[in-house]
Amino acid sequence: MFRFKRWWRSEKGGVSMYLMMILLPLLLFLGLLIDVLRWKTADQEAELAVKAGVRSVMSAYSKNLQAYGLYAIETGTVDANGEFAKTVSDNLSDSAGADRFVWMRQELVPGTAKVTPIYPLSNHQTMRQQILEEMKYRAPLNFALEIVDKFQKNGVAAAMGDASRFGERASKVEALIGERDKKMNEAWQEFAAIKQKSADITPFYQTQLRDLNELSARIGVHTLEDTRLALQQAKAQATALQNQIRSIDGSINSLAQAGAGAVQAIAQLAQSRAELASQYQIAMQTVTQYEELIANFVRYGELLLVLQGKTALDQDELHTKLIRFQQAFKQTVLANDALNAEMEQIKNGGGGSSTTAKADDVFARVQVIGKQELDQWEADAGGAVAQFSGFHAQMNDGIWFTQQKYANTIAAVEGSKQTLDTAWTRMSPEMNRRSQSQKNIQDAKREQRAKTQAVLDQVRRGIGACSLVSGVDPYESLYHSLQGNPATPGVKGYFQTFMEMNRQQDNLASVPTAPLDNPDQAGLSALKLASGLENVLSTVRDEYYIDDYAVSKFSYRTLGMEKDSYGRIRTSKELSMPEQHPLANQEVEYMIYGAASCAGNYSLAYAEMFAFRLAIGVAEALLAPDANSLAAGSPLLVLLAAVAEGAVQAQQDMALLIQGDSVPVSKKLSSAIALSYKDYLRIFLLLHSKEAALLSRIQALVYVNTGVDLTQTATYLSGSASTAFSFWFMRGVTRLLGNNGFAACGADKARCSLSKTADLRY
């Protein structure tokens, strides 16, 4: 105890104690710091090793797909886990060997290295992103040079848009003209029926009214009752006179038997008889006169009843015809108002353009009908029937037929007919002129349609087909792989498989085509098809990148036939070598139309290309329209004449295009700029932008051309691995610090395990 106290109080070795007290914590801190540094070094080394492992696996991308600008590993042919584990292990410090000193020796924990491949190229979004990456530098240049400069900046797209709008206006106005003329002809027929009825009945009424007037004149101021009473009195007087004469005759016969002494008496009786006979004769004449007067009353009544009955029937018939006329007339007014409103809109600037200014002159020559003219027509028809109704009312008013009434009724009948005749005389020349004009226009339309149809028939016969070997399509099996075999409906083609995989529906029938069996529809459809380019040029970007990818990486009909400015055949510089693809010279057409045969895709492309050239030809023709068509005042005739002219030129252009030559975009609008078959395919891809179908067809063709199953590819890798190392100093303290502030080291107290994950994509 004493020694201890002495030692404790002794000052010998004090410096050493103080130094130890200072150095020991410092050494402990340095040991801890060394392990922490080794820990952080291990963490960084593990992270870099895992990333290197993922990069190493991704370096094994498919060379076949790389030719198409696509980067992905084939998960079915690459040992991704083994390559990843080896690379991670080789990039850890343990790989330096046990005979060498390393600052921090870290090793891969067996069985923990694993790679997860995701986002295959069978996914539309993944495929789309890779195509955009491939084309983001050269596609904008192609878009500017091949499409915008050749169409938009040179006014061709605007001209085709103007022509399309003219075609729409012309078609609309022509339909309104046709409807107006049809309804007016129907109303004219109903008006003609009213006039004919009036012409048929007027002579009858003129005769009967004249007879009725004569009977009325004969009857005069007599009444039927007075006439009957006077007749009775006349008959009674005649009977009395006749009885007296008979009595005298009896007396004369008696006196004649008395002899000569009765001669004087007989003479006196004879004289009396003669006077009575004269009176009897006068009485009988009076009877006859009154009987004739009674007969006139009867004939007057009978004729009046006949006229009253007939006027009722004729009035009903005229009213029925008037109602039918008014119904037809109402439709005429509606059709005429619609046409006039459209013409007024065009006149006030509702349509028209600089490129179709001359063609627009036809709208000023359209025959219009003023409202006043139609109103007068309706008033004439209604007035004529109203006049006859007035005549009918007079015939049934119960008033005796006098000379004044005769004048009024005959004026009503003849006035009704005169009103109709006047209207007919006024309108029939104009109606005949319109009818003749319509006939001439229809004849001219048939002539222009015949010209166009002759060209369309030739186009349909020579629309283009693929080479066949002994009548067998050499590409049939390839199309069965792409589209499926109709003979085995349960087996899907690659296209349908990719569509369903991306939850898309097949809309093959929605691609618009220009009908080649109808001149009217061919022209309008061609203009509508081409007009879509005007808006597309200002709205697309990504769509064009994908379209340009399709045209660049795959084959089409004239590949290997096109020539440069020196006349040399152009060859493709693409790594995908499209000229060697099994679906030779038809892949782009298949992407656009999706037909299940080479002939089908060629035909659709040919027809649409012809329609596009037809639209340009129509736009050119509308710059200087046919003078006779303009004079006729028929917008549709102007359009049909332009279609006939454009069809001939389009057929000549197609013969050059399918041979690989280029033709001027427009000989009148931009003759210095030419387009080839390939350029038109670019346009059609833009116009029929259906990205889901296009991407699926691209995937299907890549599958056919490379043999790489895109469903077994990956463009994104997620690699994970665990590494382990041992602490040098103060394992417990370091582990405690790590668990609280750095990273967990796992359950093994002797070693620290680090788990790392790295995600990379192409």
Estimated structural class: mainly alpha
**Low-confidence sequence ranges:** none
Rounded to the nearest angstrom, the radius of gyration is: 56 Å
Compute the number of strand runs.
Answer: 8
SS field, number of helical segments: 23
Q: Give the helix proportion (percent range).
A: 55-70%
Structure description:
The chain has 762 residues and is mainly alpha-helical. It has helices at residues 2-9, 14-58, 63-66, 80-90, 124-135, 139-152, 156-219, 224-258, 263-350, 361-364, 371-395, 403-461, 476-483, 494-501, 519-536, 542-553, 587-593, 598-623, 627-632, 635-657, 677-687, 691-706, 731-741, and strands at 73-74, 106-108, 114-118, 663-666, 670-675, 713-714, 716-725, 752-761. A hairpin with a 3-residue loop joins β4 and β5. The chain is elongated, with a radius of gyration of 56 Å. The relative contact order is 0.14. The mean pLDDT is 82.
